[in-house]
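Standup notes
- DV: blocked on the single-chain target, sequence here:
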Amino acid sequence: MQSLKNKVAIVTGSSRGIGAHLARELAKAGARVIVNYAGNKSAADQVVTEIHSGGGDAIVLQADISKVSEVKAMFDAAAIAKFGKIDILVNNAGVIVYKKIQDTTDEDFDRIFAVNVKVTFNTLREAAARIEDGGRIVNFSSSVTRLMLPTYGAYSATKGAVEQLTRVFAKEVGSRRITVNSISPGPTHTELFNEGKSEDDIKRLSSMAALGRIGEPDDIARVVLFLVSEEAAWVTGQNLGVNGGFA
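- DV (later): unblocked, structure below
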């Protein structure tokens, strides 16, 4: 059943990993999807090809969304030039730096905040004027905000900021029936997550979850699909842990 038929969705950072899976699943649900990427055009093109092969509608849009001008251009291209509107925004783009706070350089700090916080801020600010009444916004936080994990200091700080932006923005646009929520995934099987991890690492992380396993992209997608649906019209300003009881 295409519950998102005639809806238009932007998914930031959707050339691979969870973002790519989300783009494909939103298209299966009937949404027309903007696949945003920063540098990996071939991967983004592949996602769009897969969507078209499944009978869906999608386009690729390159944008460094830490830059205001490129965020505006992305919304212009999607909302005006191609699809005529925006109903759904999923802020998936993000980076991580694994360093103790004492070892985190100014350059590390500025980069992770530029991508994880400024990107969310930029897209929310643009969405305030561009997203349709009754629209849906989902921001990505992380379950590490609930833990005290060494080397995650700067990353946790950015995701805490995303959660606060979510709550405040929900109040600011609520009169237009726009819902704004964030989700906090735990460890999730993706190419990027698995890189450099041993089988013992995966087993250890699996044991930290109440359900005893690492998440899959589909676990995340199902919750996002709920939050952007009509069934979630009374859910806003919330952060949902999508982590199998990891934290």
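- Follow-up: Strands lie at 8-11, 32-37, 57-62, 86-91, 131-140, 179-185, 239-242.
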